[in-house]
Design goal:
By secondary structure, this protein is of the alpha+beta class. It contains 1 helix and 6 strands; from the N terminus they run E-E-E-E-E-E-H. A hairpin with a 3-residue loop joins strand 5 and strand 6. The termini are far apart.
């Protein structure tokens, strides 16, 4: 797979989150972008399955997103493409990602 297929610049993380289901499960979120993320989780997740997540953004607070599993890596987690997000959550995510990208590009 080529990274050139990616439409959004990712922010490494980690971000705290929860997988929402019958039981809320704490997860770590990595490679967060406007379009999706990688969920570090010991739970298996089949490709093409819907998943509900809450992601705690450091400066914007908690957002809720729905996504579709793109692929899974046994023992590591799964990649998710966001399919549904409230407009307020999308705005919060955009502001947080802009802030983090700007900080990453500043000289140290």
């Amino acid at each position: 797979m080529s990274d050139n297929r990616r439409q959004h610049v990712r922010v490494t993380g980690p971000f705290d989150g929860k997988r929402i289901g019958l039981i809320e499960t704490p997860v770590q979120i990595y490679d967060l972008s406007e379009g999706g993320c990688f969920v570090n989780s010991m739970q298996e997740q089949q490709e093409g399955r819907e998943v509900e997540l809450e992601i705690n953004l450091p400066n914007e607070g908690m957002i809720k997103v729905s996504g579709l599993t793109l692929y899974s890596r046994a023992g590591f987690g799964f990649a998710t493409r966001f399919t549904q997000m409230q407009p307020e959550a999308r705005e919060k995510l955009g502001r947080e990602l802009d802030r983090l990208r700007k900080r990453a590009s500043e000289p140290r």
